[in-house]
Task: structure prediction
Amino acid sequence: MVTRRLILSVFFLFGLCSQLLASGGSLAGRVTTKGDAEPLVGVNILLLGTVRGTTTNARGEYRIPEVPAGKYTLVFSMVGYHRETRSDVNVEEGRETLLNLTMSQAPVQTEQIVVTASKREQSLQEVPVSVSVMEAGEIKLRNSLTIDDALRYIPGVNITGFQVNVRGSSGYSRGAGSRVLMLLDGIPFIAGDSGELNFESIPVGQVDRIEVVKGASSALYGSSALGGVINIITKPISEIPETDVRNYVGFYNRPTYNEWRWTDKRRWFNGQSISHARKVGDLGMVLFFSRQVDDGYRLNDYRRRYNFYVKTREDFSQSSSLTLNFGLLYQYGGQFLYWRNLDSALIPPILQQNDNVKSTRYYVNGTYKDVLSDNIFFTAKALWYHNDWGFETIHGYGRAESMSDGFRAEALSTILLDNVHTLTAGVEGNMDFITGDMFSDQAIGGFAVYGQDEMKLLEELSLTVGARFDYQTIGVNEITGKLNPKVGLAYTPFAGTVLRASYGQGFRVPSVAEAFISAGISGVLAVPNKDLKPERSYSYEVGLSQVLGEVGSFDIAAFRSDFDNMIEPGLVISNQNLQIQWRNVTEARVQGIETSLKLGLFDGGLMYNFGYTYVYPEDRTKHDLLKYRPRHLFYTSLLTRVGMFSAGADFRYISRVDRIDDELVDTGIIPDGDAREDIFVTDFRFGADFSFTGFPLTATFSLNNALQRNYIELIGNIMPPRTYVLVLEAKF
Amino acid sequence: MNRIRSGLLFLAALFFFYYSGCDTGLEPPTGESGFSGVIRFTNWPSTADSVRELRLVAFEEYPSDSTGIIYALLSGRAAVYPPDLSSKGSLPKFVDTVAYTFNTKNGINLQVQTYAYIVVAQQYGPNIFTDWRPAGVYSTQPNSFEPAPVRVLLHRVATNIDIQVDFHNPPPKPW
Result:
């Protein structure tokens, strides 16, 4: 309660300040498409060299008030359109300067704006680290039902049993801890108890884009960001009333082999969602509800999921706003840990046939933004994340439950000192309260201060230097105080060519689950380890990005990360019983190369994406390869549009992982657990847009895993066979 | 023209995707479950009558039951190799070594489970129910009669389950 009052007071104080600082002239105008002069909604407009900016409304209009008199350069950018720049725009005291603009479509977006790399908006080309962006349109085209489904198509990212692995940083840790930090609108969003990423809490339909920063990012984001950062950015509230109704239905193909056919019934899945966005005066609101039902293609793998989401935004003035999000997830379903054996690959062991899991998760987060002056931008963020989940096994260890309440708060400011220096500095705090029998009662917390300076040393050379100090306690024997520095260089020798190099340190404190778990996992009892130490990483990267004229862009990077005190789960024998325990076991090095190519051929008639990542994940203690890391990741996709029709195809190749937990196989816990092969997955999709009829309806039909490849991402878990999905969406 | 080119390129790529992924991937296994190894014989008895039959027997538990091998076999607590229970089905006699593979297809009762006691059993008298004794036992310790367990895993044949049989120095009789 005290925390909430404090935050509200801070919001009020800064809101007041912004009113006092109002003066100068203003800029206004209208942005339309080249040719048909249709208004463009959501164009980003930035006054270069300042933190001032805005976006166009439903009529394509914009207005930036309180601009000090002087000459400015304006940058207009929007996904799918060429960036436009207007120099020497004169603003006079007490007068409004009008500037209308037309923007032409770009076949490939080569100048995307990202916010995650430096906690502020900047062009992807200026960032000294590797960042991949997935836009809402791409997620929608693939009908990804959860965010982790969508992440499978980002170069350098692969999923192992709902856990995200960025460039080989993570293997599989049974849901405990993550070496990739997940952010929701820039705020850390990880469960306080397990430390895992709960993607299903965020409705996919409300995601605007996903940014993935690859490599250690603890110098800005602290613990867990030692392998990378995934920032999920929710959609802005529409300026005009908008209702979106979406319905999908699909079914799983029958298994390839008779031995695997455990039911004669067809296994269906379906989902419905409805959202409505409206703005009344300065207050905007989005309401969203969705329901998802999945019979599951395996025995005891059914699921029911309900999401409710509200987003509000109050614009106090043109320069300050408060955004509040509320999300609720309730889900329950069967728990399929691993197969009975490869003969019976779609049914679990007899003792796990009735296992089930139930979760209730909700969160409230708020972001206050304020342009304090022409060169100072202030943001305050806070999040409360409640997480209650438990599982039940009839014949095993009974019922186990964990409940956590996590609180995060952050205040940061970006200051444009002069034409050379852009400073970003902030403070952050967190507290987590955990109860339940799974991890026992725990209270953990910490704080951090960070700062960075982005220096434009020359017109074509920029240097970023930063560091963050974290103090964190989680109740293990060692309290953590860590300083993580970073440095990055971006050099533009020619227009469209950027050379980059970066170094950063990362660290991760053990999650509560890793240190304090006391429950059955995968049929084996997990035991606590209070002697766990934080793990560290040191990441290096060099890269080159090249814009290929009007047709696309190309990127190549070489990377290396060294890990100390890596925390890995391992099987130990205690009193002649097998147990799982997390331990600091390994010094490791993960290195490799990554390339990506985006092309828009024939005036955007054919879009092509390609990504390849080679990773060599080396366990330097055992002189062996790290577990659960594939060495080759290859993605490619095609999309073509002809009139009202569209067609697309995705192809993924992920090489067979070299090492797994052999103990789980050798001891017979997961029979045939070493059965695994290269992954080849091909998806096809076809769409039609019926809006020419006057009714705003789109239909998409997808064939996922179209060639019915039988593969696993996690030992003992066959992935879905071919699925047929029909999606109907009406937006009005 | 561009649309035709786009379409043709798209179809060519689909063709590539199709052939890249047409293998079905994982499939139900066909291999047997069991274990294999070599039995080494020394000091064969001078009279053939005292070695009427030799069988490889895997006991689920160390057999303390005085009713012996046949009862363990009938109750499903032991597995026997070779499967032919007539006198012709014995392991070869008066040889130096025998290589064997004892699996769920060629043995009687062998299951996917752990066996605590693997023994070469010798029928030394005419009574098929009672005249049995161990001639050699599987142990991981050299020159030891300490039995070592063997885990039979699904669709795997454990190797190097070697047994030494010295007819002058047989292991203790548990039944």
